[in-house]
Amino acid sequence: MKPTFQYGIDQLTIAIAIGIGDGHIQGILGPESIQKINASAAAVASIVAEGRTVYGVNTGFGILANSSISEEDTRTLQYKILQSHSVGVGNPIAPEIAKIMLITKVHALAKGYSGIQLTTLERLCWMIDNDIIPVVPEKGSVGASGDLAPLSHLSLPLIGLGELTEKGIRKPTSEVLKAYGVEPVQLGPKEGLALINGTQFILAHAVKAVQRLQNCLDAADIIGAMSLESLTGTKAPFEAALHVLRPFAGSIYVAHRLRLLLENSAIMDSHLDCGRVQDPYSLRCMPQVHGASRNAWLHLKELTEIELNSVTDNPIVLDAQHTISGGNFHGQPLALPLDYNCFAAAEIGNISDRRCYLLLEGKWGLPMLLMNKVGLNSGFMIPQYTTAALVTENKTLCFPASADSIPTSLGQEDHVSMGSISGRKLNQVIDNLEYILAIELMSACQAIEFRRPLKSSPVLEFAHDHVREFVGFASEDRIFARDIERIALLIKNFSFVDQVHRFAQQQGNPLTAGFPSFTIHH
After folding, report:
1. DSSP symbol at 145
2. Is it the case that residue 250 has pLDDT exceeding 90?
3. In a domain? residue 318
4. Which helix H or strand E contains 94, and what residues bound it?
5. pLDDT at res. 11
6. Hey, what's the torsion of the CAs at 499, 431, 133, 101, to 10 degrees?
7. What is the C-alpha separation between 503 and 507, in angstroms, rounded?
8. Rounded-to-integer distance, Cα 295 and Cα 507, Å
9. pLDDT tens-digit profile of 296-306?
């Protein structure tokens, strides 16, 4: 039986949001949340019945906030807002991210401050449970006044409009609802506004970025250690005594992991007195560079989990006599750390590319370009061209979207966060980072075989052997794009890191212990 999560009541974490999304956890509207939802809907009904003016309930939106709407038109207003604000363009976001939008939207609305009807939330839950996911265009949100355009597209299927993805196939909403014998929802006062106000587009991208970047950071430590072994680097810069003198949590954690990754390595023991004083920075400074990105990741994780449990609607309905029109929908709290993590992710790719280059130089006992017969063969020279291209592309994506703001709504909404762009860009940078790490892993696996018969540590030998199940040693040139794609898939689907960590655990190697905050427990 699946563990359950009560929307609006329980504390939502990144791991739980992902768990509901992939079907391992069941999200429910329990008795406590239903009570709060119904009380909030009743408060909005009371406001309409009494004729009191409340923004978005019986007024227009944005610059039209001073336009009064009659009681008989308050329901029509909610339909029109979903239609008028559905202006997204570009390719659809991944259904996985759209599903996280649904999950986080239900959780925020179920807290009982938005006046949403229970029937509306039950329909959103039905979509989540049946994996019937709205088609949401990737572009069009400025990240303030909520993610208006993407949330409008997310909500259109409630009223029978828009498109849905069912079993990977994109279909008109009307066709899907008819097949299930389901009628469109009848929206009440304020519901349209409650559905489209919020940061769930930014938030869903942040949730995926936190999950994916942690995986890349974990992979970078393992792959970097393999490169260091291939280049007969020293483990001295990873000693705990050094890092307590500059006690950044990320640096201490990465140094701890590197020490464990290199434990009981015959390669390391073979050159303890080689006379080489210092390694290049891309080897020696892994704790400082990987660790700084870990610190940035941790900040994003902490802020994302605050947002996961926040109410980002406007206005907020405390009760029938007390509503507040404020700015909880503004995306700035996530826009800044999302941009900051673009730099953090890009730097992991940058230092990985430098290690790829070191492996090709033909120094410290490795053949130039990682092949014995070069000239006729180009060896591993050209894959590093790809890492160089991807690193530069990531640099161009590092301009912070949150540094800009363009007024909207005729100046009523005169400062916006652009956090939706920050979230999309971070995931693009991670896309490239996964390929960069795959190329370093491919190169390190090739290089380490030139150290035979010496073996690395048990954990790193397992990592090497795991890759060799999918990609073999290259004695001559071949189409390396195929190898890159196979290895990249091991990183993208988390299996490389998961398998290495599981092996380490079986060996009694506490590779993920020490700083629980640097992991997402699921």
Report:
1. S
2. yes
3. no
4. none
5. 98
6. 90
7. 6
8. 28
9. 999 999 999 99
Residue 419 corresponds to which tokens in the numbers above? 């956090």
Is pLDDT of 294 > 70?
yes
Which domain-ending residue is among 198, 231, 256?
198
Q: Is the preceding omega at residue 157 within 30 degrees of 0, hence cis?
A: no
Catalytic residue, candidates 7, 55, 113, 253? 55
List C-alpha distances in Å: 464 to 156, 447, 459. 49, 11, 9
Which tokens in the block code for residue 404? 């800009």
Are 323 and 47 a contacting pair, CB within 8 Å? yes
Which domain covers residue 167, as residue numbers?
A: 4-198
Mean pLDDT value of segment 348-375: 97
State whether 183 and 288 are in the same domain. Answer: no
Q: What's the pLDDT tens digit per position in 44-61?
A: 999 888 878 777 676 666
Neighbours of 320 (CB within 10 A): 18
Shared-domain flag, residues 146 and 213 = no
Q: How many other C-beta atoms are found inside a 10 Å radius of the C-beta of residue 90?
A: 10
Q: Are 18 and 151 contained in the same domain?
A: yes
User: Could you tell me if 254 and 287 are in contact, meaning their C-beta atoms sit under 8 angstroms apart?
Assistant: yes
Q: Is 519 exposed, middle or buried (0-12, 13-18, 19+ CB in 10 A)?
A: middle
CB atoms within 10 A of CB 4: 12
- Contact criterion met (CB below 8 Å) for 121 and 109: yes
Band (275; pLDDT cuts 50, 70, 90)? confident
Q: Establish whether 435 is a catalytic residue.
A: no
Give the C-alpha separation, 128 to 276, whole Å: 58
DSSP string for 277-335: ----HHHHTHHHHHHHHHHHHHHHHHHHHHHHT----SSEEEETTEEE---TT--HHHH
